[in-house]
């Protein structure tokens, strides 16, 4: 377990800023104490500094996981956000998409969101902006990337893709075999 390098930090924070913008500092300087990000086996973990101090005595080969996994770096050094970060990013999300109940299950199966399933979208969402997807009861369902801006959504075809799927809470069930074995 080690701190992120400058390049890893840049790539990681760029990805986070697509979803929560300047609110990244709110993740680090929290009211319950300072938090940090650490890299272990190409995965970025989020934990309190108190937990970090306690974990320092554990041999790194024996350590499987610590804190909350926010995502992982690929072999090409790109960062992929995992659904486990949703609980921490959703309260700070700048751009949101709400889906209709009829489309909620389709999104949880890993499908993109069409305009016909769009309930609401945050004003001034730009194209290719990271968004947090909610159901109409304000329950966060996952992450996506806006395929169209808010202005384009108003005048587009009902079958046009509005949001590209990235991750959703249904992944726990779909990937159960690969996660356990």
Helix content: 25-40%
What is the CATH first-level class name of the largest domain?
Alpha Beta
Number of domains: 2
Q: Main β-sheet, in a few words?
A: 6 strands, mixed
Beta percentage is 25-35%
Poorly predicted regions are none
Any idea what the shape is?
elongated
CATH fold descriptor of the largest domain? Nuclear Transport Factor 2, Chain: A
**Radius of gyration of CA atoms, rounded to a whole number:** 17 Å
Q: Under the CATH scheme, which architecture of the largest domain would be assigned?
A: Roll
Order of helices and strands: HHEEEHEEHEHEEEEHEHH
Mean pLDDT: 89
Coarse structural class: alpha+beta
Count of helical segments?
A: 8
**First-to-last CA distance:** 23 Å
- Regarding quaternary structure, what we see is single chain
**Major beta sheet, strand line-up:** 7-11-10-9-6-8
Could you tell me the number of beta strands? Answer: 11
What does the model show?
There is one protein chain. The protein has about 180 residues and is α+β, with helices and mostly antiparallel strands. The chain is about 30% helix and about 30% strand. It has two domains: about 5-90, Nuclear Transport Factor 2, Chain: A, CATH 3.10.450; about 95-175, Archaeosine Trna-guanine Transglycosylase, Chain: A, domain 4. The strands form two sheets. The chain has a six-stranded mixed sheet with strand order 7-11-10-9-6-8. The longest helix has 15 residues, at about 5-20. The mean pLDDT is about 90.
Keywords:
single chain; 181 residues; alpha+beta; Nuclear Transport Factor 2, Chain: A; Archaeosine Trna-guanine Transglycosylase, Chain: A, domain 4; elongated
